[in-house]
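Quick one: examine this chain and its backbone structure tokens and tell me how the chain folds. Here goes:
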Amino acid sequence: MRSKSGRFLTGLMVGACLFALGWIALIAGQLGKPFVNNLWVEGAYAQKLAQAEAIRQPKLVVVAGSNAMFGIHSPTLAQALGRPVINLGVNAGILSPYLLIYARQAVKPGDWVLLPLEYPLYHDRFEVNQVFLEYWLSHPVTYGLNPLRLARLLAETPLLRVVQGYQGVPAGFQVAGLYGAQHLDANGDQSLSAHAQRSEALFSGARDSAVQHYGAQASAFNGSWPMWQAFARDVRAAGGCAVFVPPAMLDRAAYHQDPMEAAFYEGLPSEAARHGLLYMGEPLAFMYPTDAFFDTNYHLTAEMRLMHTQRLAQLLSPALFKQCQAPR
């Protein structure tokens, strides 16, 4: 009886191992292949990196997700800081590893960097979402890839996505819609976001957006601080400076009234400082009412973008960047 039971368990384990190896091989066979959902992100970054490369003098590079693409008015910052600006914001969904990979391509010695990071990017060490998963399959990197994240990628990849990876991009496909290089200006700012261009369907994405629980989700275990700390240190070592500031986000009562959420936002500047980062501004002061947003809880209308950037410019100055640019 024991012998039969042992053989059954052995067979079960062998079968499970063979299945796992087959699944890994199936995923591996389509790694690096293009995927439709990634094209707008790839196109936006390609355009922004080319614009950054064309600047032959010290510049300001804005590093974040799409909150910066919609929320930063680059000419206002350029005037306030006295140097050209490239807005590298595209999509926070690809998470810290890819944001940093692209940032390191854009930032040159002597550049200043402004980081209005979306709040989850400070605690995404093990995060795997649909956007990141799809992007990693097309752009597999080991940077930021820890064992838990790799295990999640292998376990959470849908069979349909694997099949689509093998199929590739349909012939003649072109990026269309609200997001993509087709709606970016010469600085990398979103060019389609005026209040008059906001349809009811677009606005509902912001109005009906969920209350976020970033405070409850943040912990010392999932913090991404070492990645941002290393980046800021490298920028300083190259004669530049990295300054972290709050992103624009849709205000909710819970962010002020829930003790855990309020503590997260109120404590973020000091937490950043504890990790050796220069953080300017109070997060709760840069949250805005619903009508300020275009289509998500992070995307300002063009009119509010100007006001928001003017407020950021009041926090910043050339002297601020110069005081931290020396290596430490």
Remarks:
- Residues 116 and 247 are 5 Å apart (CA to CA).
- The longest helix spans residues 2-28.
- The domain at 39-125+180-324 is CATH 3.40.50.1110 (Rossmann fold).
- The chain has one domain: 39-125+180-324.
